[in-house]
C-alpha cells in the first residue's frame, strides 16, 4: 500500500493527471525483488517520480510517501 501527500504530485511540476500517471507507473514498475521491502519500494517510487530527489530546494512542497506491506 502506498500513501502520499499531494506535494509528491505537485513537486513533479506536471499537471496533476500526468503526475498521477507517473506515480502509478512508478508503483507498478517496482521490480519483483524489491516488493517485499516497503523502504525499497518507497525509494524506487521516489527516484522514478522525482529524479532530482525529494529534498530538492527548488520547491516548497512537502513530500510524504508511506509504503506498507501487509501479510
Automatic annotation (TrEMBL):
Classification of source organism: Bacteria, Bacillati, Actinomycetota, Actinomycetes, Kitasatosporales
InterPro entries per UniProt: PPM-type-like_dom_sf, PPM-type_phosphatase-like_dom
Organism whose genome encodes this protein: Streptomyces haneummycinicus
Domain PPM-type phosphatase: 2-70
Protein name: PPM-type phosphatase domain-containing protein
